[in-house]
Structure to design on (638 residues):
């Protein structure tokens, strides 16, 4: 059965290498191979201490295993190429089905990249000169650790799938996801500690914890084989094998529960909007507020934004750097806008109800904006005031009084506009399962909203920087209100003019404006009878970049990907440090330069990031508009 399911999965992967999925698969494979190559390089380098390479590889294995375990909570769902529900009507026992699906789970890009990364253990055994026996033990440990990673990931995914059917589970998943992202984005905090460890070695308790984790048992087996301690080798390898069996049995039990337990249909909820929801716009706002409080997906996103803001701004306290504390409310506002980027996509085909009511689009957009402000503004203000008082940074009030209203107004406008212009189709809420892991996140859409929302605060930022004290707050209020009104008007106009096309896109997932190329009349004689694999489609045609020359296309992708490094990491963050006086050099280039060169370097970095952002975004929007103009021309047109 395992062979049959492996063949099925290969066929599905072969025929699904199109669109966004192909782009994500290729990007993930390249990124994973780069990280795996870096881990192998770490294992092959020379170090002043003999124990240091083992500690570094152990940390790398621990992080890689954590990615397998926590990745489903962050990226959504794990590998669901073959869904167990597809085989529920067949006469397979849960354990037999779990055995077949376990075999198919080792087919894919992620297991292959992980196998390459774990080969660092073999390289380390050979580099350390532990002997051929230790190298052979390393090969066996690599295979067993891969088995443990894949099966443990399946088990954790199944457990989270059962837990995340309630608000408590949704909050727990949001906390895990926020902690992972905040830790990755705050990795510069650990830079001094890592540099010290590379010079003097890791502390003994830390090294003991690294090898005590299951991800370090392969290291224990290799070192024991080099020292001739074969009982320890057998115990470590047997522990990995036993852990894999336990994970498989647990997954099989949860798989049976998944196939035999019916999802609760829910119960009627009393609706009481209050006396304030009397008009069309306030009625939409009341409906949206109920959705934010009841829908597990919206609740999960909201808790994620709160947990991320707190974790990201509190983590620098580990090195006595309260630099980000006053900006906790600003970070929360940005992420609430980012997680609200797909409001219409989350509602699914419910859009048809608005199409039946003339003029409903304008009220719907304004009502969503009002509800978003009611959800985002109070926590933003509370976090801002509380953290400023706690940090004692009263000198930042002009900045915060300008940026907070600008970001709230910009977020209220950008969210509805992007949701209308670039919706991501999702399962209708009434057909959606309770497992939030089935609802993945489009990170391109999230990144787009983050960039655009931050850009709406640029006038307020320069008003504070260049104008008098009162100019910043005034510009923030006026600019935020103007952005909310203008972008909301654009979203309403777009929704009114393209509601049928948007509904078709949400229902089928296919853009109605994209013309299919005419089929060829006859295949060339040389190609007849020759099998062809489908050509991977990276989704560039959806963005209009298929019309751009190769060089310009590469520039757009590279500029929009890398612009945040000079703009935020090397520009805005060190500027905030110099402004508040809380300076931590870390990897910030300007802070390593003499005093008279710091601000010019920061200004140059911000200018470089803005140039990359504006030119890349401008070129991308140009080809997107050109693609849409070409797509709506009739076939016989000029």
């Amino acid at each position: 059965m395992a062979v049959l399911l492996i063949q099925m999965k290969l066929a599905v992967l072969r025929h699904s290498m199109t669109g966004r999925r192909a782009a994500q698969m290729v990007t993930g494979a390249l990124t994973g191979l780069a990280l795996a190559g870096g881990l192998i390089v770490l294992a092959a380098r020379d170090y002043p201490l003999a124990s240091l390479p083992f500690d570094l590889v152990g940390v790398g294995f621990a992080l890689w295993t954590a990615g397998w375990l926590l990745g489903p909570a962050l990226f959504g769902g794990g590998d669901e190429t073959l869904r167990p529900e597809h085989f529920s009507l067949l006469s397979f026992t849960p354990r037999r089905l779990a055995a077949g699906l376990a075999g198919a789970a080792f087919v894919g890009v992620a297991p292959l990249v992980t196998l390459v990364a774990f080969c660092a253990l073999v390289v380390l055994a050979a580099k350390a000169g532990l002997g051929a026996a230790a190298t052979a033990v390393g090969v066996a440990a690599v295979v067993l650790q891969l088995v443990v990673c894949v099966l443990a990931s399946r088990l954790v995914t199944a457990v989270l799938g059962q837990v995340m059917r309630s608000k408590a589970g949704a909050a727990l998943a949001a906390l895990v996801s926020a902690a992972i992202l905040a830790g990755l984005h705050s990795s510069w905090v650990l830079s001094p500690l890592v540099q010290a460890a590379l010079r003097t070695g890791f502390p003994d308790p830390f090294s003991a914890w690294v090898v005590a984790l299951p991800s370090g048992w392969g290291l224990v087996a290799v070192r024991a084989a080099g020292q001739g301690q074969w009982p320890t080798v057998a115990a470590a390898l047997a522990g990995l094998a036993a852990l894999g069996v336990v994970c498989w049995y647990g997954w099989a039990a949860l798989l049976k529960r998944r196939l035999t337990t019916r999802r609760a249909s829910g119960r009627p909820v009393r609706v009481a909007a209050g006396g304030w929801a009397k008009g069309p716009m306030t009625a939409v706002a009341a409906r949206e507020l109920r959705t934010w409080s009841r829908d597990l997906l919206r609740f999960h996103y909201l808790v994620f934004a709160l947990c991320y803001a707190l974790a990201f701004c509190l983590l620098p306290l580990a090195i006595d750097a309260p630099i980000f504390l006053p900006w906790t409310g600003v970070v929360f506002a940005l992420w609430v806008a980012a997680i609200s980027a797909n409001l219409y996509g989350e509602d699914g085909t419910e859009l048809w109800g608005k199409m039946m009511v003339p003029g409903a689009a304008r009220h719907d957009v304004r009502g969503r904006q009002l509800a978003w402000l009611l959800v985002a503004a109070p926590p933003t203000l509370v976090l801002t005031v509380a953290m400023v008082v706690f940090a004692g940074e009263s000198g930042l009030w002009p900045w915060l009084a300008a940026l907070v209203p600008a970001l709230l107004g910009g977020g209220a406008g950008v969210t509805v506009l992007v949701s209308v212009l670039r919706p991501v189709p999702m399962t209708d809420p009434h057909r959606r399962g309770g497992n939030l892991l089935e609802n993945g996140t489009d990170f391109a859409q999230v990144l787009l909203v983050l960039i655009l929302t931050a850009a709406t605060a640029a006038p307020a930022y320069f008003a504070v920087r260049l104008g008098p004290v009162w100019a910043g707050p005034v510009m923030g209020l006026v600019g935020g209100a103007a952005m909310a009104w203008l972008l909301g008007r654009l979203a309403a106009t777009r929704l009114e003019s393209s509601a049928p096309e948007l509904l078709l896109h949400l229902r089928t997932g296919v853009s109605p404006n994209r013309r299919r190329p005419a089929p060829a009349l006859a295949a060339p004689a040389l190609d007849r009878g020759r099998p062809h694999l489908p050509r991977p489609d990276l989704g560039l045609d959806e963005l209009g970049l298929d019309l751009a020359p190769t060089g310009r296309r590469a520039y757009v992708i590279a500029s929009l990907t890398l612009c945040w490094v000079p703009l935020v990491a090397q520009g805005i963050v060190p500027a905030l440090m110099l402004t508040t006086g809380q300076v931590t050099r870390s990897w910030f280039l300007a802070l390593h330069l003499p005093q008279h060169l710091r601000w010019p370097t920061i200004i140059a970095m911000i200018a470089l990031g803005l140039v990359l952002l504006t030119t890349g975004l401008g070129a991308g929007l140009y080809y997107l508009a050109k693609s849409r103009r070409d797509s709506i021309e009739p076939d016989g047109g000029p």
User: Anything to note?
Assistant: The first helix runs from residue 2 to 15.
